[in-house]
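Annex B.
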Amino acid sequence: MTARDGVVARRSLWHNRDFLTFWSGETLSLFGAQITVLALPLTAVLTLDARPEQLGVLRFLQMVPYLLFGPLFGVWVDRHRRRTAMIGANVVRMVLIGLIPVLAGLGQLNMPLLLMITFCVGMGAVLFDISWMSFVPTLIRDPEYLVDANSKLAATSATADAAGPGVAGALVNLLTAPVAMASNAVTYLGSVISLLLIRTEETPPPATAKRRIRTELAQGFRFVAGNHLVRWIALVGGLANFFLSATQPMFILFAVREQHIPSSVLGLIFSIGACGGIIGGIVCRRLISRLHLGRVYAGALCVAFVPALLLPAASGPTIVLGALYTVAWFLGSLGLTTVNIVIMSVRQNVTPPSLLGRMNAAVRAVMFGLGALGGPVAGLIAATAGVHEALWISTGCSGVFVLCGVALSPLTRLCAMPEAATDPADPADPTDEAADLARSRPPSVPEMAD
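MFS transporter: predicted structure tokens.
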């Protein structure tokens, strides 16, 4: 056992009660959220007869809150206890998601109302995501366990990806899409209870009475722009989200309306395909410990996007289409999970703890700001050229993006995980602009491969 900063490290995360409690609650909410991932667009398509451009707007409103509110929420999270923020965010999402089946049952659900609820749920997701990414290092304490923690959370997310759509497809067939989303509200309640049971005390944030919000916002973006690793993570992640947001709704529309894939089969395709993410979460830590970190990242990025070309290219009877679609989603999930573990661990290692909230907010503002544009752009292309053509364009361009990302990103040249950054021992006066700049200067990174 080792000790860092006076904290004795546990033998493994299986002995960390509070992490296991958080992990359990997050697992529950992720399973419910994955039901909504399929049931929400199916509510728009099957219940409200949404047009392609409306489906693109729905996807846009899920992601644009990261751009509009992420930086402000990041400042707020760094000023307050993160567990409290997560509890509040999940209570809001529980209530809003629960409204959809109620309104549908009363015959009051319409497209503008669904779009409004989607936007507000997205705001809750922003606050929760920024908070948990900054809260996990508090639970872990020892940076050596960050990759292990992120691998466990990613494997859980992939498991939810696998089970959620299949359950959602069955529930949609049995109960209708809006009613299927009620289960998500119940899982958010379970997550809130698990967060209330966590006993780890967060270090009270330093007093910020004299600090200006504009200064703190600038500090987060300055750190992201100044650290070449985090800067590339944000850029590549943003473009990845753009193409994912363009591809997924067009694929759902194409599969349901043009290929006549039943919703239950579509859910099964997503479920089996998402099993690739489970494998990625399990093997990623071993790959990172045995192989060149940059090669793991580059290989996973290629696996994540190149197979997507199967989605518009596949043809044949339903069973052949289902098999090819499943292979594409399986490989994509495998690659994306591995990439996410790598970039999450790198970000958490190179960022000082006091900047984690603002860094995560700035990165996700870029990632989801670009990602939010994918749905509307694909929707406009589909409205003018056709859904199949829009799917070809989104998957083809994503292949070009991968080649550029692998060739240019400095992450592909990393030999090992960067050293963990620390806060200054003697923080400067928070009103001092020069001190703010010094505190946001990126830490050193390990030697890069030639």
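DSSP finds 16 helices and two strands in the chain. The first helix runs from residue 17 to 47. Further annotation is deferred to the next reporting cycle.
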